[in-house]
Structures are given as C-alpha cells and as structure tokens.
Amino acid sequence: MTDFLWADPEPERGYDVVVIGAGGHGLATAYYLARNHGITNVAVLERGWLAGGNMARNTTIIRSNYLWDASAAIYEHSLKLWEGLSDELDYDILFSQRGVLNLAHSLPDVREGIRRVNANRLNGVDAEWLTPAEVKKLVPIINTSQELRYPVMGATFQPRAGIAKHDYVAWAYARAAHRLGVHLIQNCEVTGFLRDGDRVRGVVTSRGTIEADRVALCAAGHTSVLASELGFRLPLASHPLQALVSELLEQVLDTVVMSNAIHVYVSQAHKGELVMGAGVDAYNGYGQRGSFHVIESQMAAAVELFPIFARAHVLRTWAGIVDVSPDASPVLGLTPVENVFVNCGWGTGGFKATPGAGWVYADTIAHGRPHPLAAPFALDRFTTGALVDEHGAAAVAH
C-alpha cells in the first residue's frame, strides 16, 4: 500500500548513520539528520514493518504541560514543531488542537493543578485553570455532580494541545526522509554489533552485516536489550499499556479529557470512535496485549464521567510496550560506548515528543554532543542524582 511513498531497498554495505527502530522517533531522527544536517547516507532498520510498534499502538495525545523546566522545554519545542508539521512534510497529519483537560477530584489535585498551571506559564506554555462550571461549559456531556465518588473540582487546560493521526505522522516522516535519500529497511532485525575495541563499527542483522560510523538506538522498550548486547545497562522497566476504541459515533466530545483519580483518559478520533486509555499494567513484559481487569476498570471510569458512553460498544483493544525510567523522563544522548547514541525511556510520552525528540536526537548524533534540550536527560543523571522527576506528569498514562 505504501510503495508509492517510499522505497524498500536492499541494505548497502555501510552507512554514515544507522538508526535502529523505524517508529516515529527513528523516522523523525533520520529526516532531521538529512534535512537539518545534510547527513543523507542514513539507514533506518526495522525488525518488522515500518511504524508497527508503539507508533501504531498509542492514543495520539499531544501536549507540553509538563512540570519541570527541562521537560516543558523539550515538549514545548515538540509542540511548536507539531503546529507546522503538515506544511513542513507536505502531508496532512490531521493535527487537531482541541485542547487537553486534566481533571482534579480532590483538594490536593486542585493545589497540584494550580501549581502546574503557574509553572507552565513561567515556562511560556499555555495553561489555564478551569472551575467545575467552566469544565461543564467546555464539555457538556461530562458529569460534574458533587454526588460522584470523585467529583470534578476543577481542571487544568492546555488549549494548544490535541491529537494527530499516528499512521499519517509515520508515513509523512518516512516519505520525507526517503525523498532526501534515507534508506528505510524493513524486516531487518539487529542481532549483534561489530566491535573494534571500545568502538562500534557496524551492526549484524538478519539481512547481513552493515557497517556504520555512528549507531543510534531508538527501539523503545527493546533498547535495553540492545544496550545489554553492547555491555551497558539502561535503567528501564517495560510494561504493557492498553487502549481501546469504540464503534463509530456522532461527534460528542470536542476535547481530550483525562482523570488520574479514576484512571481513564478519552478523546474522540476524527472518524468518530472514542479512544480510551488507562494506566500501565503492573507487570513487566513485552507482550502486546493487556489484562481484562484494566479494560473493565477504564470502561467503568469512563461511564462514571460520561454516562452517555454506557450505550457505546467496544470495537477492539490493544497494548503497546512503554519503557519507563526511574524518574519517568527520557534517556537521550551519549552512551558509554563511543559512537553509539540512545533515545529511550519516554514511557507514555513518546508520541507527543516525536518531532522534538527527532530534532534534538539528530543534532546530538550529528555533532557528537548533547543538544541543549537533551542535556538534562543524559544517562549519567542516574549516577549524579540530577533526576527530572515527572512521575506526576503522566496523569494516568498518555
């Protein structure tokens, strides 16, 4: 179906840069290497099909209202890129800035929400605090009764946040990278690395050996497996993260609504289906399916907030694999192995970071030093103690 968008070449003997992982971040990295830095002798290797991992399994939410300065900076950079991405890539990615609500259900929620709004404003991120009446006006179908188990006591609101069509984002980056000379090689699993002392000089794949001057790891939860092959450890825990969609419905929800207390977030896609998610499964694993109790809980939570949803039918469910670091922030930059770079640990925030992560990762690879926006997310922060603690920023898991 996508042959007209990009070619499917045989691997060449060697490349200037090999990117492992053809998800959103890998494709964006390759595009910005070519576009921003003139490095076009690049191969993106994917063990399955292009964008068949988390890029195809997320709930497409985009926002930048993170608490800490470092997080707000990189996600806001990403959001600004999202705002011009359709024009940049000459492909309509259906980016819809419909706003994101994070509901507060207790006095601590209210205090934390107001704190986050103030922090966002200090960092130049658009943020508002809404009263229950203002929430009801924005989302008429929400239940704001004070008799609820967790009544709505207010919400943070980022008007510029929204959603995009994940497949279109991947295809747009892939086509643009291909036009600049990047090779996108599918069904090519990396099984090992070529070493020359402390330096890596290539990769061993299911389709042969490929030499490389630089190797960029970009395989989400499986990045830790690749790192172990190289002799260093990444502090990642991989968990299944579930989502579900309903049948097609008339448009009833014009914004994205999230609730940490009752563990659900929901938006309505462009075609009309409701897209819902919840928290990660408690166990570690790489299975792309989740647990029924999580599905049941998130549906109950959705009906509690939106009684009208009780008449909707679930169409399908799925799970992706999220890679979570100890401080719930990404690992982005250099590694202990010369000429090997890493981009992982985004947890539930990977999709929204796609353009920004690709931009700063490409800059880091091109210059061999961290981009200023990536510097706070260096791997060595777990030994220095300079953590970027964003555990509260997930607001369920999205």
TrEMBL record:
NCBIfam families: soxB. Its cofactor is FAD; FMN. GO terms for cellular component: cytoplasm. Pfam families: DAO. One of its GO terms (biological process) is tetrahydrofolate metabolic process. It catalyses: sarcosine + (6S)-5,6,7,8-tetrahydrofolate + O2 = (6R)-5,10-methylene-5,6,7,8-tetrahydrofolate + glycine + H2O2; sarcosine + O2 + H2O = formaldehyde + glycine + H2O2. Residues 17-61 form the Rhodanese domain. Its EC number is 1.5.3.24. InterPro entries: FAD-dep_OxRdtase, FAD/NAD-bd_sf, Rhodanese-like_dom, SoxB. Keywords: Cytoplasm, FAD, Flavoprotein, FMN, Nucleotide-binding, Oxidoreductase. Belongs to the SoxB family. It comes from Asanoa ishikariensis. This is Sarcosine oxidase subunit beta. GO terms for molecular function: nucleotide binding; sarcosine oxidase activity. It is found in: Cytoplasm. It is an enzyme of class 1 (oxidoreductase). It comes from the Bacteria.
